[in-house]
Amino acid sequence: MVRVRPARLSLDDFAMATGLHPDLVRRLVALGVVDAARDPAGDLWFSRGQVAAVARVQRLRAGFALNYAAISLVTDLLDRIAVLEAALRGARRPGR
Amino acid sequence: MAAGQDFYETLGVPRTASQDDIQRAYRRLARQYHPDVNHDPGAEDRFKDVSEAYDVLSDPQARRRYDAFGADFRQVPEDMDPETFRRARAGAGSGAGAGGGRARGARGSPGFGYSTGEPGFGYSSGDVDIEDLLGGFFGGRGGRGSRGWGPIPGADQEAELEITVEEAYHGTRRSITLSGDGARATLDVNVPPGVTDGQRIRLAGQGGRGSEGGANGDLYLVVRIAPHPRYRLSGRDLYLDLPLAPWEAALGTTVAVDTPGGEAKVKVPAGTSSGRRLRLRGRGLPNPRGKPGDLFAEAKIMVPPRPSRAERRLFEELAAESDFDPRRQP
After folding, report:
1. Are residues B210 and B151 in contact, defined by beta-carbon separation less than 8 angstroms?
2. Which of A3, B132, B241, B248: CA 20 to 30 A from B163?
3. E strands along A1-96, which residues?
4. Is B183 helix (H, G, I), strand (E, B) or coil?
């Protein structure tokens, strides 16, 4: 059976997917740790990629006892490094 | 490993290390092995070992007990006198390993009191969570690794998988051995025909383990195609040298070449010079989604290293007869 995966998640669905309390999710959005879009009604919507992003935030926080400002910085830097490493790999590939 | 690990060894500090040394060693190793920084599949286990060691050694009370009673200090009653313990241990004889069995495989076993706050063992993490804005949400379930977050999904991991050009062409199966939590798991990985260098193969749920019921991360195998003595690769296009005798290049010929897909015939047109690329359309690596790559045979004119007398005479004749000058500017 194929289940259709919606492109974006409501606050409740996102909270379910991440195992976090909706209040905590709202707090993380307010802190800028999680990206969310707000529709005209004021409801929050999340992209699927944010589920993995939250998991990384949880691991970084558990591993380093980082505060949320630091976590945002670290995740930004990790993302930038990933892009650079991918570019480096592409450049090193034997091409002609 | 974890089974019976020495916490000091894990952190790489002497038993006399100060709290500062221990903290410094932990921070350094944590930065190195955190699963979100280091995507190597082995890093996660290392990180867990390091965290476990730090949890004990950073807490002066736990450290004292660890020093006195060793790896299974959590099983020793609170009011046990170290001297009595040592004598009892020595008396139990060396043959059985004196209760070491309990320490082995301790991680994740019920006897391992990370967060449960075992009776009589007032353990609290020495690493106080500063400005935990959200501490109240989950009612203070202590312990590193959870910190009141509930289940945490595992990180994605990355490992390299080196295959040959031939395997990239035909596809292959590989057995990958993963070590995790002391156990080893072997996965049969199907590498489909036509993978390219740098392509990632996703093994869902085979990455870092989630904690407290969180989903596992994914393992990505990054395909590396090993350098090949005959073939060079650019994306799905294959290049190979096609050695030709001067007369074959001048007069034209048809040459059989080995390709990963079997023998192919290359038609060399008359008047071919070194460097000319002869294309065999679609004979490169297959493409599961679209056009396969091409194979390019690059003409490379070779001369007899030790010409016979007759060959020499014929070349001299040719040299006298021909007015061809390859260096002449057009």
Report:
1. yes
2. B241
3. 8-10, 37-38, 44-47
4. strand
End-to-end CA, chain A: 46
Closest residue on chain B to A58 (Cα): B152
pLDDT tens-place string over residues B178-195: 766 556 678 889 999 999
Q: Which residues contact A85 (CB under 8 A, 6 or more apart)?
A: none
Mean pLDDT over residues B36-45, rounded? 87
Residues with Cβ within 8 Å of residue B264, at least 6 apart in sequence: B256, B257, B280, B283, B295
- How many helices (DSSP H) and strands (DSSP E) are in chain B? 9, 11
Paired with B254 in beta bridges are B267
B197 min Cα distance to partner chain A (Å): 7
Of A58, A90, A94, the CB nearest to B149: A58
CB neighbours (10 Å) of residue B69? 19
Please give the torsion angle defined by the CA atoms of residues B88, B92, B94 and B96, in that order, rounded to the nearest 10 degrees: -130
SS3 of B169, please? helix
Cβ-in-10-Å burial (0-12, 13-18, 19+) of B111 comes to middle
Helix (H, G, I), strand (E, B) or coil at B135: helix
Residue of A19, A21, A63 with shortest CB distance to B34: A63
Tokens coding A91: 């450049």
Cα separation, A20 vs B138, in Å, equals 10
CA distance to A1, B142, B247, per residue, from B124 (Å)? 47, 7, 85
Per the listing, tokens 């195609």 go with: B225
Residue B107 near residue B181 (C-beta atoms within 8 A): yes
pLDDT tens-digit series, residues B220-261: 998 999 999 999 999 899 999 999 999 999 999 999 999 998
How far is B17 from A30, CA to CA, in rounded Å?
42
Which of chain B's residues have a Cβ under 8 Å away from the Cβ of A55?
152-155, 214, 217
Helix (H) or strand (E) holding B241: strand B237-244
Query: Which residue, among A31, A23, A24, A27, has the nearest Cα to A69 in the 3D structure?
Result: A31
B114 within 8 A of B142, measured Cβ to Cβ: no
Helix (H, G, I), strand (E, B) or coil at A6: coil
